[in-house]
Design brief:
Immunoglobulin-like; Maltoporin, Chain A; 2 domains; 22-stranded antiparallel barrel
């Protein structure tokens, strides 16, 4: 009730304060000529604008306090400066030319700094770039981020893997709230569409200090598209075609912002046939998806709020074996029908030199699975509307309410400090014939504090947190899980152009309902699983060391980690059978994962338009007794040559060729088989054209151009010897108004 009152006050509060204005001019550092169309933005305030033809900008209705101002544009080094408001002078900003990609403010960490100022190493990728590389789905696109892979069931179902950890060990955030969609299940994907998602950030390593249980392995943080700048209106529509699946996707968006109110909406739809390999189409990898995202916001001088809503409705085929060969796009049995609702509200109250952030989310996940067998001639297709005429074999509804309240204390000398409370109430209810997990209620609460200390040559970050999770079921299971966690990090320049980051952190994960309560046959794996109601917390300690060298033409990075996990939960057979299915039990043992990523980015002088990028990533996971952990990604090399160009008819043009080399995976658990290595060749090109005085973005890409037969070690179709996708050509168009 108290939380509700606070939120209500946030919406009705209209304090009367003076309106602060900041004006300035952006110029080139070398030529001193004015720079037009430069983005000038206060990330924490989510307020900004664009310079005019003379390089001038003006931002109004700013609250009193100290905030980071960021200026960014292609071809220039991103500029960041703390501005104390009110700022009475005319601000002059000189940008340095740079061939390096623009830096962005990292949202997933607490102090919203540029990556170069961040103590934690965070990977960031724009969704538009992932799509331009040929990614068909969001789950496929995240695999292009260093240290991130995806466990897949066909093409439509994918689960993120961060440095060898996945499922409930990796937390996903969308619209600023934690995504809850029965992620314990092997065939339960993200249930999210990339339309309306601007970028993805990845925290590799324990983030329990920031996000609580289930962030033991890391966080995948999806940033929604920004509202339009004040007094601007934008619209766009786009479509893509994928040759391999004969698939299409289309989306349309509109957004507008006035002096106080802002609004955006985006709708999208996609459908794909079974994906093709060199030898066959993989039966029932087809899927259909519809997605709607909308947002409404209000902002005055020292208060802002926004409400966002996402509806995702998908019908996903579950592949079992190679059968019917067709290009029909309506899934066969078995299939999933999933409706996912995400409501989120984020409000900020700005006081003098401090602020209060309140984020509230409500998620409603309605999951149905249809499994009834039908006799039919494989040469004929059935008209499937089973979700209308059949009762689902599996039907679960998961309702989750979560909240996150943080207070940013006034800056004290070199200290920035945040204190906060986070919590969740979750109810799972079964309606189908089958029951994977019982009806249950989960309640979380966590209290945290974190400080960033900035010295002249060193940045230090420290924090601590306490969590409590209660899980109770209709079968009289009632368990409490508690954990204290801490984190400490340091960033410093050990030489003029060499940056070192060292982070030490603990994390935890409470056992999920499947691990605690399972008792029955798991159809997807043909085994009888028995849960263990006495399982303990998984608790880990990770050391992460990152080194970076950077000058105008060369970047080199090396990241290494060692992750020690106590009470790691795994599943193992006991030698018995029930109804002809082997019995598997959930057990615990200590485990460790270690590895890292290294890479180089070279853009030679004076041909700054040419880029060479190369990276290598590796991870090894072992139980305390020496046995390898399952579903560990194979070692991988990526080598890319990229060119960027502008001329009279194309802007922001690019072309690339990429060779991805995945090595053989021989370090396997006793329930896995070896996986051969393979090489995949990709190319792409694109850019912006001016059509009827508006911008048309065009992208063309091709993946697996040699039509290689290969199987990824993390494919759940590997046990059946089913290949991953063959050659695919994609074409995308987006017209901006």
């Amino acid at each position: 009730m108290r939380l509700f009152i606070i939120i209500l006050l946030c919406f009705i509060a209209t304090p009367v304060v003076s309106q602060n204005i900041i004006e300035g001019r952006v110029i080139d550092n070398t030529t001193e000529s004015p720079l037009p169309f430069i983005d000038v933005y206060f990330p924490q305030l989510e307020k900004g604008g664009t310079t005019d033809e003379n390089g001038h900008f003006k931002i109004e209705n700013l609250p009193t306090g100290s905030y980071k101002l960021v200026c960014s544009s292609m071809g220039y080094e991103t500029y960041g400066q703390i501005i104390s408001i009110p700022y009475k002078e005319h601000l002059s900003i000189a940008l340095k030319t740079s061939a390096i990609e623009m830096e962005e403010v990292i949202v997933s960490t607490p102090f919203h700094k540029l990556q170069r100022d961040n103590v934690m190493k965070v990977e960031r990728a724009k969704v538009a770039d992932l799509k331009a590389s040929g990614a068909v789905t969001l789950a496929q696109g995240i695999s292009d981020i260093a240290g991130v892979e995806s466990i897949t069931t066909g093409m439509s179902i994918g689960k993120p893997v961060i440095r060898g950890l996945s499922s409930n060990r990796v937390l996903v955030y969308t619209q600023g709230v934690r995504l809850e969609n029965q992620q314990f299940g092997d065939e339960h994907g993200l249930g999210l569409n990339d339309a309306g998602v601007e970028s993805i950030e990845v925290i590799k390593g324990p983030a329990s200090l920031l996000y609580g249980s289930d962030a033991l392995g890391g966080v995948l943080y999806l940033n929604p598209e920004r509202f339009a700048n004040q007094d601007e209106t934008h619209a766009d529509f786009g479509a893509s075609y994928y040759v391999n699946t004969q698939g299409t996707s289309a989306n349309v968006g509109y957004k507008t912002s006035g002096n106080g109110f802002k609004f955006l909406i985006r709708g999208s739809a996609a459908e794909h046939a079974d994906y093709d390999t060199k030898d066959y189409r993989v039966t029932n990898t087809r899927f259909k998806e519809k997605d709607l995202k909308a947002g409404f916001g209000y902002q005055n001088t020292n208060f802002k709020t926004e409400f966002r809503y996402n509806l995702n409705d998908s019908k996903l085929g579950i592949p079992e074996e190679i059968g019917i060969q067709s290009t029909d796009k309506d899934p066969l049995l078995p299939y999933q029908k999933i409706t996912n609702h995400v409501f989120s509200s984020k409000s900020n109250i700005f006081f003098d030199n401090s602020s209060l952030d309140i984020t509230v989310g409500y998620l409603y996940n309605d999951r149905k699975e249809f499994e009834e067998e039908h006799e039919h001639d494989e040469s004929e297709e059935e008209d499937h509307d089973e979700d209308e005429i059949l009762d689902p074999a599996l039907h679960m509804k998961l309702k989750t309410f979560n909240y996150d309240v943080k207070y940013n204390l006034p800056t004290y000398g070199k200290f920035q400090t945040i204190v906060g409370v986070q919590g969740m109430n979750q109810i799972n209810t079964n309606y189908g014939e089958e029951t994977l997990i019982p009806n249950a209620t989960t309640n979380d609460i966590g209290i945290l504090a974190m400080s960033h200390i900035h010295f002249n040559t060193v940045d230090i970050q420290l924090g601590g947190r306490y969590d409590n999770r209660n899980i109770s079921t209709e079968n009289d299971l009632n368990r409490n899980f508690n954990s204290f966690n801490g984190a400490a990090g340091v960033k410093t320049n050990i030489a003029k152009k060499i940056t070192l980051r060292l982070n030490l952190a603990t994390g935890f994960r409470a056992p999920n309902l499947a691990e605690l309560t399972s008792y029955g046959a798991h159809e997807g794996t043909n085994r009888f699983e028995i849960g263990n109601a006495n399982l303990k917390n998984e608790q880990n300690f990770q050391t992460d060391l990152a080194l970076e060298y950077k000058n105008k033409h060369l970047e080199i990075f090396a990241n290494g980690f060692y992750n020690n996990i106590n009470n790691y939960i795994y599943i193992s057979p006991n030698g018995e059978e029930i109804n002809s299915d082997p019995v598997y039990l959930y057990l615990q043992d200590d485990a460790a994962l270690f590895g890292g990523e290294v890479g180089i980015h070279f853009h030679p002088h004076p041909i700054h338009w040419l880029h060479f990028e190369s990276s290598f990533e590796t991870v090894t996971g072992k139980q305390d007794g020496g046995a390898y952990l399952p579903l560990i990604p194979a070692n991988n090399f990526n080598n890319t040559v990229r060119v960027e160009f502008d001329n009279n008819w194309i802007e922001k043009g690019y072309a690339f060729i990429k060779l991805s080399s995945t090595l053989a995976q021989n370090n396997i658990s006793e329930f896995e088989t070896d996986t051969d290595g393979y090489n995949l060749l990709s190319v792409g090109l694109g850019g912006d054209l001016q059509v009827f005085k508006n911008t048309l973005n065009v992208s063309i890409s091709g993946s697996n151009l040699t039509n290689k037969r290969y199987i990824n070690h993390l494919s759940r179709l590997k046990s059946d010897g089913i290949y991953n996708m063959g050659r695919n050509i994609s074409v995308g168009l987006t017209y901006k108004i």
